[in-house]
Design brief:
With 334 residues, this protein is of the alpha+beta class. The chain has one domain: Alpha-Beta Complex (Sulfite Oxidase, Chain A, domain 2), CATH 3.90.420.10. It contains ten helices and 14 strands. It has helices spanning 21-31, 87-92, 107-111, 135-141, 168-175, 196-199, 214-218, 270-274, 317-320, 329-333, and strands spanning 46-49, 57-61, 120-125, 131-134, 145-152, 157-167, 183-188, 209-213, 223-228, 231-232, 242-244, 257-263, 298-301, 307-309. The chain is globular, with a radius of gyration of 19 Å. The structure holds ligand MTE and molybdenum atom. Molybdenum atom is lined by residues 19, 95, 153-155, 250-251.
Length: 334
């Protein structure tokens, strides 16, 4: 039996302001709280590092065939003036609603049920020729690098992560979009056998979907992550491939991607679909536009007791502000 103990920097549940507060309430009402049991059952071949009294830390899958590709060289252009968040903190505090039963600490154990091989990504919509590519083939065709990025969740916490991956722009080039393509629509796996919250399908409009404009996808910061901390991604971080858009709120950075569609119409993400006034399409980090239920002016730095001011575009304005020239403050966020 594992005892879950809060670390000093974790707030009591009563003080957090989760994105899913509405959903959680709905789920608890619908399921009578039954889903909240069994959250810490370790399973699968993943490496679980036990420490008595500490939460279980799930690292990358032991059988991940891409392990030999890491670590990869760090790109010095993308470093930040903050300490990298300790791996243990990052691996035990996640948002992955397919696997989150109650707290952010649940995802590690639950996500071990996700099979990450074989894994294929479908590319379709407005492209010269739709195709499907297997993750290991994709990894053999790209050049991996490490980038240190800040991550700012809309829930007003942040961390700093050493990702491994490749620019989304390289993926777009492989996909050869047609001139009519204006957006990319990303989709996460859909599998009721592995995701407890997908089994309760009526509660969320699964699968998880997110979208960006073609210009955003071409921006040098947009990064497809396949690893972190010098190894493949652990499942709870979005293995085998997830997006990170460091200038946008975290919910845009979709995990465990199985489909990328090029569209003329603006895609509607899962959160936008549920709460369009709280989670807009643009979702650029903006300390001046409060979330309807909390301020975005400051953020809690995970793994520390610090609360620091939030920066416009999460501090990445020099790279991205040009894409939004002329948009007013409110629209930058919504
Ligand atoms: N498929 C999927 N992707 C997702 C989410 C999710 O629930 N499902 N949560 C998002 C949110 S709200 C955040 S803050 C980040 C968290 O990433 P991390 O757990 O690696 O910190 O993933 C994003 N990507
Ligand atoms: Mo988030």
């Amino acid at each position: 039996m594992l005892i879950k103990r809060k670390r000093g920097w974790e707030l009591p549940e009563s003080q957090v302001t989760p994105e899913a507060i509405v959903l959680d309430r709905r789920r608890v009402l619908a399921a009578g709280g039954a889903a909240a049991a069994g959250g810490l059952l370790a399973s699968g071949p993943a490496r679980a590092l036990f420490g008595f009294g500490e939460p279980t830390i799930y690292g990358p899958d032991e059988n991940d065939p891409s392990a030999g590709l890491y670590p990869v060289p760090r790109n010095a252009r993308y470093t930040v003036d903050r300490d990298i968040t300790a791996m243990e903190n990052n691996f035990t505090y996640n948002n992955f609603y397919e696997f989150r039963l109650g707290s952010a600490g649940d995802c590690g154990a639950q996500a071990q049920a996700l099979p990450v091989r074989p894994w294929e990504i479908a590319v379709d919509g407005l492209v010269e020729q739709p195709f499907t590519i297997d993750i290991d083939t994709l990894l053999s065709r790209v050049s991996l690098e490490e980038r240190v990025y800040r991550h700012r969740c809309v829930e007003a916490w942040s961390m700093t992560i050493a990702w491994s991956g490749f620019p989304l722009a390289d993926f777009v080039a492989m996909a050869r979009p047609l001139s009519g393509a204006k957006y990319l629509r990303f989709e996460t796996f859909l599998d009721k056998d592995v995701s407890p919250n997908q089994r309760a399908a009526f509660l969320y409009p699964w699968p998880y979907v997110e979208g960006v404009t073609i210009a955003e996808a071409a921006n040098e910061l947009a990064f497809l992550c396949t690893g972190c901390y010098g190894a493949p991604l652990p499942k709870q971080m979005g293995s085998p491939i997830r997006l990170h858009l460091p200038w946008k709120y975290g919910f845009k950075s979709i995990k465990s991607i199985v489909r990328v569609s090029f569209t003329e119409e603006r895609p509607v993400g899962l959160w936008e679909n549920l709460q369009p006034r709280e989670y807009g399409f643009w979702a650029n980090v903006n300390p001046e536009v409060a979330h309807p239920r909390w301020s975005q002016a400051t953020e809690r730095v995970l793994g520390t007791n610090d609360r620091v001011p939030t920066q416009l575009f999460n501090g990445y304005g020099e790279y991205v502000a040009g894409m939004y020239a002329g948009m007013d403050n409110e629209r930058l966020f919504m």
